[in-house]
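> agent: user asked for a holo structure of the chain below bound to fe (ii) ion. Plan: (1) validate sequence alphabet, (2) canonicalize SMILES, (3) run complex prediction with ligand conditioning, (4) return tokens. Step 1... ok. Step 2... ok. Step 3 dispatched.
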Amino acid sequence: MAAWEDERGLIALRWRTGADWVDLVLADPLELLDDHAHCELGAAAAAQSFLARHPSINRVAEKLSATAIEELRHFRTVHALLHELGGTLSSRGPNAYVEGLQAAVRASRTAEGDPLVDRLLVAALIERRSLERFELLARRAGGRLGDLYRELAPSELGHAALFVHLCFEIRGEALAVPRLLELQELEARVAREQTRGARIHSGFAERAA
Ligand SMILES: [Fe+2]
Ligand SMILES: [Fe+2]
């Protein structure tokens, strides 16, 4: 097993979310679904924007158009359940975890750093953290919510693997892995520092770190 991998061949998380996170988010399922619906919209938009910026990279058009469609389909599924349970989609600002991660990654990039590697690895890390959260919810949530996360988790696993392997294909493992090892540590810090709340990427801090 390589240093960046876990036992499933996915990116190893350097900080694991505790089961008390599930209790925290299940206290407000409508808020969680609202946030989650926005995560899916953001993922669809990010896949399209990456494709528009790098259309000629091998396999990118095919893979990322499929990802964008899949994420938008997830949005419809999550939104339908939100609506069914009596909630409405709110308008939300940017995702604090995603913004925090992007900012921390930019700040840590040296002059020799490769923005394309960083973009792909950040996408892979976000999918990987989301997968961890979906799997916790799949195990612990009951009823329709539990069904939702059991349905969505396999596709999140596919996305986490897709972005890391795209990065390895495009730039080579020798260049990508050392940066991935750095970003794994950084992601763990950003995730841990998120504020409490019923959100897919929430943490345990009382207020913004
Ligand atoms: Fe998704
Ligand atoms: Fe995804």
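> agent: step 4 complete. Summary for user: Residues 43, 71, 127, 156, 159 surround fe (ii) ion (ligand 2) (CB under 6 Å). The chain has one domain: 20-192.
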